[in-house]
Design a protein that fits this description.
Blueprint: H1 3-10, H2 13-18, H3 24-36, H4 38-58, H5 66-71, H6 84-143, E1 149-155, E2 163-169, E3 174-181, E4 189-197, E5 200-207, H7 211-214, E6 217-219, E7 227-234, E8 246-251
Helix pairs in contact: 3-4, 4-6
């Protein structure tokens, strides 16, 4: 094999020819060599077969008109000399295309997943905001209702600086509570609201005094209450309030 043919086989000229990326001069040169050089014809045949197989397996279409251009050639069969280097070269080229395509697909899929996660998060946030808005509207409606009695529970000897606001509505049998000030208590204790009914302090439920500083809390309601009170109880609360820990109270 002469130096010129070896140089062509070691270059990418034949690959570019089959991909339609050569100049007219290069195209004429390849066509001439295909007719006169068994080595060039063998290399082109192998490249064409590899291209078609990879295109069918991976759904990558060869350049338009490539097959027709090749089939229109009228060449006689010549002895063929193996050219494994070019086959491996083309397979590496095809593999690189597949890797790039797969990488682009993977990136797109990751981006789609990220956008779907963001959309889900935004939907959940909107739903929470709508729920909070509805809750706030209901609370404002209760506060402004004609039958609602606002009451300020003031401190006692046990906790003189305590201050708790309560909105008490007998018609709706509902109550809202907001802490203005309550002293800190041990972790094994909790604040409990209770109502005095016929001299008996009955529980209306425990509450988190820190949360009640930030927002209105819906609390329990009992008919015929003579006063509303806040006491300090063991965690979990008591059915009957501990009068000795009375922190705030008001008659209603």
């Amino acid at each position: 094999m002469n130096k010129e043919l070896r140089g062509i086989l070691e270059s990418d000229l034949l690959e570019r020819y089959l991909l339609g990326e050569v100049s007219e001069q290069e195209k004429a040169k390849v066509l001439e060599l295909r007719q006169t050089s068994p080595e060039i014809k063998k290399a082109l045949d192998e490249l064409e077969a590899t291209l078609e197989r990879v295109a069918l397996e991976e759904q990558i279409k060869p350049p338009p008109g490539l097959r027709d251009k090749v089939l229109r050639q009228d060449y006689k069969v010549e002895p063929q000399i193996p050219s494994n280097r070019l086959s491996y070269s083309w397979l590496a080229y095809a593999a690189s295309i597949l890797l790039i395509t797969g990488g682009v697909w993977f990136w797109q899929q990751q981006r789609i997943n990220e956008l779907e996660a963001q959309a889900t998060a935004y939907t959940e946030q909107i739903a929470q905001m709508e729920a909070d808005c509805q809750k706030t509207n209901l609370q404002f409606a209760l506060i402004n209702a004609p039958d609602t009695r606002p009451a300020l529970l003031t401190g006692t000897a046990y906790a003189p600086n305590s201050s708790v606001i309560v909105y008490w509505n007998p018609s709706e049998k509902a109550c809202l509570l907001r802490v203005a000030n309550l002293p800190e208590i041990p972790s094994d204790k909790t604040y409990q609201r209770c109502a005095d009914i016929d001299g008996e302090m009955k529980s209306l439920g425990t509450f988190d005094h820190l949360a009640a500083r930030e927002e209105l809390l819906s609390m329990g309601y009992l008919d015929h209450a003579e006063s509303l009170n806040v006491t300090v109880e063991p965690t979990g609360g008591n059915d009957h309030a501990t009068v000795s820990t009375l922190s705030a109270a008001v008659a209603i």
